[in-house]
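sry for the spam today, last one i promise. C-alpha cells for design, 273 residues
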C-alpha cells in the first residue's frame, strides 16, 4: 500500500500548505503549546512588528530580504484568520474575498464603467469619497470613530486631522499652523519652568500634534520625514565615531565642541557631494 505524503512537506508554493501548517500548529491536541496559547491581542504586536520589518527592507532596498519579510507578514494574516475560524467568526477565504471585493468597489475606473482618464490625485480623492460612503453605510457614530488606535502617533495624528478637515475643522493655510506652533512652543517653555512633569508631557504632545498638522499642510508624511532624519542622524554620528577612531578615541573621550565640528564637516561634505 502506497503511503500518502503529508501535504505540509510538499514544497510546491501556495497558500494551502501554509494554511494547513497553521491549522496544525493551533491543533489543541497535537499542536505547538506556544501557538495554542496565543490570541488576537497577543499576536497583534507581532503583526505590527512584521509590517515595520517589511517597510525597513524596502527602505534599505534589501530586495533579498523582502521575500522573507513579506512571508512573515502573510503569516500574521494566516494566524489571525485561523484564530477567527476557530472562534466561528470568519476564515482566510472570507478575508481574501472581502479585500478582493473592496478593490473592485474602490476602482470603478478599472472594474466598472468610469473613465480611467483621471490624475493620481483625482483617483486618491475618489478613493476617499468611496471610503467615506462605506463608513456612512456602517453607521459609524462620529467622524473620528474608525481611525485605528494603534497607529504610530504621528501617523494617527495626521489621519485624525485629515478626517476633521473633511468636515471643515482645519486651518485654511500654513500661516495659522505656524502661529499655533509658536503658541505651543511658548506654552511648553512655561510648563518646563513652572509646571509638573505631567503637564510638560501634555504640552510636548500638543506641540508634536501641531507639527504633524504642519507636515500635512505642507504635503509631507511626518513618519517618512522623521525616518529620514533618523537615518541622517545615524549616518552623521557614525561618521563622528569613524573620525574619532582614526585617533584611537571614542565619543566619550571627546567633547561636544569637537564632535559638533566634525558633524558640521560631515554635513558640509554631504551637501557639497
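last one done:
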Amino acid at each position: 500500500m502506497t503511503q500518502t505524503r503529508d501535504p505540509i512537506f510538499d514544497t510546491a508554493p501556495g497558500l494551502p500548505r501554509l494554511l494547513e501548517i497553521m491549522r496544525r500548529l493551533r491543533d489543541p491536541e497535537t499542536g505547538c503549546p506556544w501557538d495554542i496559547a496565543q490570541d488576537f491581542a497577543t499576536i497583534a504586536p507581532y503583526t505590527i512588528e512584521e509590517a515595520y520589518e517589511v517597510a525597513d527592507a524596502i527602505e534599505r532596498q534589501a530586495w533579498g530580504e523582502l521575500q522573507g519579510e513579506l512571508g512573515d507578514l502573510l503569516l500574521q494574516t494566516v494566524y489571525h484568520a485561523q484564530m477567527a475560524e476557530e472562534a466561528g467568526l470568519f476564515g482566510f477565504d472570507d478575508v481574501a474575498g472581502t479585500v478582493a471585493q473592496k478593490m473592485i468597489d474602490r476602482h470603478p475606473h478599472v472594474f466598472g464603467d468610469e473613465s480611467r482618464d483621471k490624475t493620481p490625485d483625482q483617483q486618491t480623492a475618489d478613493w476617499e469619497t468611496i471610503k467615506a460612503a462605506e463608513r456612512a453605510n456602517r453607521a459609524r457614530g462620529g467622524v473620528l470613530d474608525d481611525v485605528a488606535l494603534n497607529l504610530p502617533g504621528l501617523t494617527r495624528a495626521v489621519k485624525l486631522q485629515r478626517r476633521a478637515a473633511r468636515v471643515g475643522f482645519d486651518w485654511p493655510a500654513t500661516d495659522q499652523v505656524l502661529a499655533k506652533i509658536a503658541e505651543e512652543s511658548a506654552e511648553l517653555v512655561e510648563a518646563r519652568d513652572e509646571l509638573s512633569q505631567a503637564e510638560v508631557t501634555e504640552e510636548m504632545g500638543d506641540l508634536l500634534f501641531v507639527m504633524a498638522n504642519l507636515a500635512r499642510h505642507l504635503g509631507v508624511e511626518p513618519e517618512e520625514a522623521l525616518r529620514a532624519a533618523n537615518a541622517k542622524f545615524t549616518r552623521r554620528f557614525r561618521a563622528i565615531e569613524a573620525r574619532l577612531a582614526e585617533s584611537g578615541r571614542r565619543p566619550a573621550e571627546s567633547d561636544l565642541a569637537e564632535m559638533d565640528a566634525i558633524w558640521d564637516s560631515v554635513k558640509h561634505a554631504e551637501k557639497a557631494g
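The mean pLDDT is 90. ok im logging off now
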